[in-house]
Amino acid sequence: MGRFLTLLKYRPDALTEEFYTMTDKTTQFQINDMKGLHEKLFGEFLVKVGLVTETDIVEALNIQKQKTPPVGEIALKQKMLNMQKIFQILNHQVGSGKRFGEIAVELGFMSEQSAVLLLQIQDDCRPRIGDILVEQKKLDRDILEIAHRKFSSKEV
Predict the structure, then answer these.
(1) Which of 7, 22, 50, 94 is spaced 20 to 30 A from 142 at the CA atom?
(2) CA–CA dist 104, 130 (Å, integer)
(3) Which residue numbers in the chain have pLDDT < 70?
(4) Does residue 76 lie in a domain region?
(5) 34-48 and 54-67 helices cross at what angle (nearest 10)?
(6) What residues make up the domain containing 93?
């Protein structure tokens, strides 16, 4: 909380500044889905208003990546694929540049709708950047909620 009080002392407008976005060409973060994109932009917003550092965001994104289950693991738990099919997909994936679900559909192991469902489940399992920052004691929960309301009121 000290970081926020200091911020308000020197920048009382910190949570009301205009939100900005960076183009994909200039951003350091690579996020592949829309909610992930929203997370990245929220992280940029938190940095822009001075609540966290870029290093805090990079660390939080690394933790998020580590804690997000792979699609193959979710498919196995959901009994959508067995281990043999998962290994086949992973073998095809090496060097192909294709995503797990894309290969699963190409091989006829699942429908496109099932692949989308897996991604939705994965997204539901992904810890949110703000929650990670609170867990890491980089941000106070109350401040996170205020910042998120401000961020959500802007057009993303």
Answers:
(1) 22
(2) 32
(3) 1-40, 154-156
(4) yes
(5) 150
(6) 70-125
Same domain, 49 and 74: no
Does 108 lie in the same domain as 50? no
Q: What is the DSSP string of the chain?
A: -HHHHHHHHH-TTGGGSPP----TTT-S----SHHHHHHHHHHHHHHHTTSS-HHHHHHHHHHHHHHSPPHHHHHHHTTSS-HHHHHHHHHHHTTT---HHHHHHHTTSS-HHHHHHHHHHHHHHSPPHHHHHHHTTSS-HHHHHHHHHHHHTS--
Query: How many whole angstroms separate alpha carbon 151 and alpha carbon 127?
Result: 18
Among 25, 63, 65, 18, which Cα is nearest to 45's? 18
Q: Is the pTM of this model over 0.70?
A: no
Burial of 74 (0-12, 13-18, 19+ CB in 10 A): buried
- Length of the chain equals 156
Residue 106 C-alpha from the chain's centroid: 26
